[in-house]
Amino acid sequence: MKPLAKVASPAAIAVLRQATAIAPLRKKASDGLLPSTAHFRQNPNSDHNTGLAVDLTHDPEHGIDCKEIYKNLQGDNRVDYLIFRGKIWSKRRGERKYTGKNPHDKHLHISIKPEHASNTRPWFPWINEAKLAGRVVAELSTPRRKKPAKVEAKPVRKTKKKGK
Ligand SMILES: [Zn+2]
After folding, report:
1. CA 91 – ligand 1 centroid, Å
2. What's the gap in Å between 70 CA and the centre of ligand 1?
3. Helices then strands (H, E): number in the chain?
4. Does this model's pTM top 0.85?
5. Mean pLDDT per 10-residue run, the chain (164 residues)?
């Protein structure tokens, strides 16, 4: 049995924070860091108990496509293993069928290696890059505005009202 951590690892917290920064409207219904007591009893060996795991809600409509993230994170050396849509992946064993109770249809489970617990470097660099590239293109395609010409304030000439 793994002892229950009081706080999640910075690396796990960073996953959710960075996802929200990239996709502010994303749904969070299946997000998770530390387990509830019930979850802990049910699954005493879960990585969630050590704060080294994070569940990220699948919400492609709002910019968090866990199918894509599941694939891309296979190249991140901080990842111990991933679970999504009935599949589990680890570098050592590759992709296999996941036979646990929860099929992980609504969220991606990410387990982080203990040595990377404090590593908060970007988890979704390919999304950041795409966003950045999009911004650059947008900036280049919008014509630069000319500085507004200085308008000298004309002194208001008082016109004498003709007396009646
Ligand atoms: Zn999980």
Report:
1. 18
2. 13
3. 4, 5
4. no
5. 80 97 95 78 79 95 97 98 96 94 92 96 89 75 64 60 52
